[in-house]
């Protein structure tokens, strides 16, 4: 039989039939040129897809935080202005042909926030000035020592001063504020001192370098402060407020999820609860950001409600108090995911008290967040919520004390409530492993309330040091707080109904 050919979309397929009637597999017959074209086409389409994905991600970054786009524009503006010193002949001659140092200064010191830029500018100018002054002095001493001794004097001075400056960078107090200045000192001193051995006009070289750096730093300060400024102190203030809200949401979500596992929740509600549970992780991971913002905030001038001597260090104490609470919430989350299931009787007995403690504790944290956000001194509502939290903790402690009598009702025959609960439970036998999870959760909640009191004191100290204003809108503030308490009570009642069904 003659071989048959079928053509489909430009590809030729051949079927070879053997003498015994069997046939071979279909094999496309394509040329080398077509294979190369398909390979190139695949590469081009893959590259185009990656470019499109990159553009989409860049667009999302810009739309999610427009300040990043503004920062890029400010950097371009500063570089365009400082480039005039290189393009214009009068300005170029005025700085002795070293205008490129001004361009380099703008590139390395321009930061997104005002405080970070001021810190780098100050460190760069101070480090350059001290290094240039010392380098000129060392050069004069070396030149007076004779031609043979001069290189040894320069080398020894570079060794000693570079070693001392490097050691200073290891000191925590110096590293936090002057690390960049020490680095610039080492670079400038080594450059000027070593160049002085071959360059005759060393003083002129140092003068031009310092002048161009001052020009670049001054231009950076003007642009960062006049064009849509972003203040480090304000960023720290907002970060603390957001972390407080996340901490309160995590505490509420964690306890509610533990006592409301009836399976009635929808997927969307479960996802929302999981997002709230993850909020405490932001508090745990924000220590480095808080310290950096507090350090840069001390460099910033007075702006808005923040004075030059604003107590930024107190925000670090508030952050530390929040992290101590977040560690307890992490332990609560571990209780939720524990494989050991708590006894239903004990869970029902402690459920109301635990929910009240978590609700009142969350309300206190939210009230403290509102105090920091508005920069107003605490109102009478804050004290009432704190007392409510203490009362809820006392009630939970009493419930914990009743657990032995609940497990052995005959010990207190006159208590109808406990006898009724035990009769309904048909006097169950509760093992130690069933008792530990919920008792551990209750103990952690009591510990959280104690740590919230430390957070309360830290916020009160901030209000005193920063001279917060008097809260003159108590009625409106009280209504908002009453609404928050009402919503929390409704949530607690709904969870208790779920517990009763369990």
TrEMBL record:
Keyword Iron: no
Stored InterPro entries: ALMT
Major location (coarse): membrane
Any Pfam family hit: ALMT
One of the protein's GO biological processes: malate transport
Biased composition (Basic and acidic residues): 476-486
Membrane-spanning intervals of the chain: 69-87, 99-118, 125-143, 149-168, 180-198, 210-232
Entry keyword annotation includes Zinc-finger: no
One GO CC term on file: membrane
Cellular compartments annotated: Membrane
Source organism, top-level taxon: Eukaryota
UniProt membrane topology term: Multi-pass membrane protein
Family under the similarity heading: Belongs to the aromatic acid exporter (TC 2.A.85) family.
Name of this chain's protein: Aluminum-activated malate transporter
Species this protein is from: Gossypium raimondii
């Amino acid at each position: 039989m003659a071989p048959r050919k079928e053509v489909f979309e430009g590809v030729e397929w051949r079927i070879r039939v053997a003498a015994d009637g069997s046939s071979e597999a279909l094999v496309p017959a394509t040329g080398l040129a077509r294979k190369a074209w398909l390979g190139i086409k695949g590469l081009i389409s893959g590259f185009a897809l990656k470019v499109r994905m990159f553009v989409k991600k860049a667009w999302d970054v810009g739309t999610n935080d427009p300040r990043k786009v503004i920062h890029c524009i400010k950097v371009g503006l500063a570089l365009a202005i400082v480039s005039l010193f290189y393009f214009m002949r009068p300005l170029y001659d005025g700085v002795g042909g070293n205008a490129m140092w001004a361009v380099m200064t703008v590139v390395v010191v321009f930061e997104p926030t005002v405080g970070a830029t001021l810190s780098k500018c100050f460190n760069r100018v101070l480090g350059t000035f001290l290094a240039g002054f010392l380098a000129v002095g060392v050069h004069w001493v070396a030149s007076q020592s004779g031609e043979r001794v001069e290189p040894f004097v320069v080398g020894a001075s570079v060794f000693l001063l570079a070693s001392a400056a490097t050691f200073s960078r290891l000191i925590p107090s110096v590293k936090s504020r002057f690390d960049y200045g020490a680095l610039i000192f080492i670079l400038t001193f080594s450059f000027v001192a070593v160049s002085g051995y071959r360059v005759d006009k060393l003083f002129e070289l140092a003068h031009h370098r310092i002048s161009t750096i001052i020009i670049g730093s001054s231009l950076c300060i003007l642009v960062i402060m006049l064009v849509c400024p972003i203040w480090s102190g304000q960023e720290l203030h907002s970060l603390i407020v957001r972390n407080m809200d996340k901490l309160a949401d995590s505490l509420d979500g964690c306890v509610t999820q533990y006592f409301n596992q009836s399976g009635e929740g929808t997927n969307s509600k479960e996802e929302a609860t999981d997002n709230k549970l993850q909020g405490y992780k932001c508090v745990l991971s924000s220590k480095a950001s808080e310290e950096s913002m507090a350090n840069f905030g001390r460099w910033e001038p007075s702006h808005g409600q923040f004075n030059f001597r604003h107590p930024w260090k107190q925000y670090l104490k508030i952050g530390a108090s929040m992290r101590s609470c977040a560690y307890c919430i992490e332990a609560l989350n571990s209780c939720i995911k524990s494989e050991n299931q708590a006894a239903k009787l004990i869970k029902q007995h402690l459920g109301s008290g635990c929910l009240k403690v978590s609700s009142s504790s969350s309300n206190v944290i939210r009230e403290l967040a509102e105090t920091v956000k508005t920069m107003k001194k605490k109102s009478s509502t804050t004290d009432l919520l704190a007392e409510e939290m203490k009362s809820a903790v006392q009630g939970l402690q009493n419930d914990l004390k009743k657990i032995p009598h609940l497990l052995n009702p005959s010990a207190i025959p006159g208590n109808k409530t406990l006898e009724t609960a035990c009769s309904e439970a048909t006097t169950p036998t509760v093992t130690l492993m069933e008792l530990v999870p919920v008792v551990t959760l209750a103990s952690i909640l009591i510990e959280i309330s104690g740590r919230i009191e430390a957070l309360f004191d830290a916020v009160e100290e901030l209000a005193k040091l920063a001279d917060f204003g008097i809260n003159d809108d108590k009625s409106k503030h009280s209504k908002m707080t009453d609404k928050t308490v009402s919503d929390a009570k409704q949530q607690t009642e709904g969870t208790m109904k779920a517990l009763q069904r369990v």
